[in-house]
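Hello,

Our lab assistant flagged a job as stuck in the queue for most of the afternoon. It eventually completed. Since we weren't sure the result was trustworthy after the delay, we are filing this so someone can double-check. Below is the sequence as submitted and the structure that was eventually returned. Let us know if re-running is recommended.
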Amino acid sequence: MCRALNVSRGGYYAWRERPLSRRAKENKKLLDRIKDIHEDSEQTYGSPRITESLEDEGYTVSRPRVARLMRKHGIAAACKKKFKVTTDSSHNYPVAPNLLKRNFEAEGPGKIWVSDITYIYTQKGWLYLTAVIDLYNRQVVGWSMSNSMHASKTTMPALRHACGRHRPSPGLIFHSDRGIQYACDNFKELLTKYQMIQSMSKKGDCWDNAVAESFFGTLKKERVYRETYRTRWEARQSIFDYIEIFYNRVRKHSYLGNKSPVQFLEVKNAA
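-- returned structure --
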């Protein structure tokens, strides 16, 4: 090897025995922590969020340095797959006006909730996940999982779940797409019971419900597409863990200043 590289044997042994430089030692220590944070995030964090996590721990480090170390050692965030639109708006129920008009900011918790339904594939058939998200801190405040797309198994239990946990005041705006599960009489009666105001996206416009769509894209990129669910029960357990343990309480959200939804709310309440 020395002949091939045109170096002396003595020079090679001297290099091998030479202690690591201060910078090399720092990089090794930093790389170990980067690997730990990447694993703790279930391999979903890229260099921006890992840099934020390191700074939270007291490290003084730039994002380019973190990105360079990650690239050199093959550490990368999970890639996003294309999202599939699943809304069925072919019905004769009246639809509500679009009150949000793509303004996805709320003045406080319990003011505006958004919701959507998505499909999760398992080897035993589809699992349907309904999520309700508070626009103020992007927390998933309620959810349901079922084998059926009927409103009694999707949107209605998800709304009851959210209201039972968070008990919003009257006048909350509830925004969704025009799917039959949100437009049907039974669901509207439930909204009336909770004194909520219904809002709906324009037909065929996913951007009108972008926050809910974005959550499902993140869920599938960071968890669903990386798993093989043999049964619906396995999928339920995995998604519960992602929503309640990781997404709501741990995962850093760029919109929230790289805090998790629960952390963001705690900071606001303490201010």
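-- support follow-up --
The delay was a queue issue, not a problem with the job. The result is valid. The chain has a mean pLDDT of 88. DSSP finds eleven helices and five strands in the chain.
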